[in-house]
Amino acid sequence: MSTESSNSPVSSSSASSAASGHIPMIVLVGLGAGFLSGLFGVGGGILIVPGLVLVAKLDQRIAHGTSLAAVLPIAASSMVTYWAQDHIDWPVVLFLAIGAVAGAVLGTKLLNVLPHRTLAVAFATLLVVSAIRLFLADSGTGRDDLDVFMAVLLVVVGVLTGILAGLLGVGGGIIMVPAMMMLFHIPPVIAKGTSLGVIIPTAIMGTWRNRTKKNVDFLAAAIVGVSGILAAIAGGWISGRMSDTLSNVLFASLLSVVALRLVLQIRREDRATAKQAGSGK
């Protein structure tokens, strides 16, 4: 589907009718995304986007925009669970969010400038390296006192998170959680809760920008978001009682899955490009 078709009002209307015909399956997508968000401190887009494309037959671009809108209630309910257990580092949230919002805006501007394939390969490699580190990591001992250097580094991590999320369509939590654990020695459960605090303003900014371009199916977003709330609370409750070792292993497994998904996406794009080049001869 062309970009012009994806951005048109007709496309948005047809997407809504497609969503309304698959409500039970979309509810299951919301339940899975909510549990994933609560357990790992991520937005859940890794499940929402392919779920909406496969189940509701939404266009890929609209599925990404819808995912960001659906993430808001899911991430908010997950965050409340972590907040109730005092598992959010609010100063870290502030500096990461400043960078992430700026990075998300910059990422959309760089979308047609930077080489997508090279970025995807580099990011998949980074995810695999991070997964290996997490498999071998010990429990976080807690960050040092926040100083100017750490504040600047957090903003830089936030900017990179926002850019990669905007360019590659991956959730910010996939990047922020291991970064907090490995760079700042923040315990896994606090890194997850802190990540959720950053995801919310980033998702608000992304949803606002997608709405202006008619890239959001609000019916599907509402179904996914509402159905994922209770599952997100349950996932957050379980995460708060999980050992650091188990948490590291599970998150490393999640990173490996995301890396594999990116590699498969690259292969599909390469085959499509080769097929198009062959048909043009």
| Envelope shape | globular
Oligomeric form? single chain
Q: Residue share in helices? A: over 70%
Give the helix tally. 12
Brief characterization of the structure:
The protein has 281 residues and is mostly helical. The chain has twelve helices and no strands.
Describe this protein's structure:
The chain has 281 residues and is an all-alpha fold. It has one domain. The protein has twelve helices and no strands. The longest helix is centred in the last third of the chain and has 36 residues, at 244-279. Residues 1-17 have low confidence and may be disordered.
Feature tags:
281 residues, mainly alpha, 12 helices
Topology of helices and strands:
Elements (H helix, E strand, L loop, with lengths): L2 H5 L1 H12 L2 H18 L4 H11 L4 H25 L5 H20 L6 H21 L11 H21 L3 H12 L4 H25 L5 H23 L3 H36 L2
Helix pairs in contact: 3-4, 3-5, 3-11, 4-5, 5-10, 5-11, 6-8, 6-10, 7-12, 8-9, 9-10
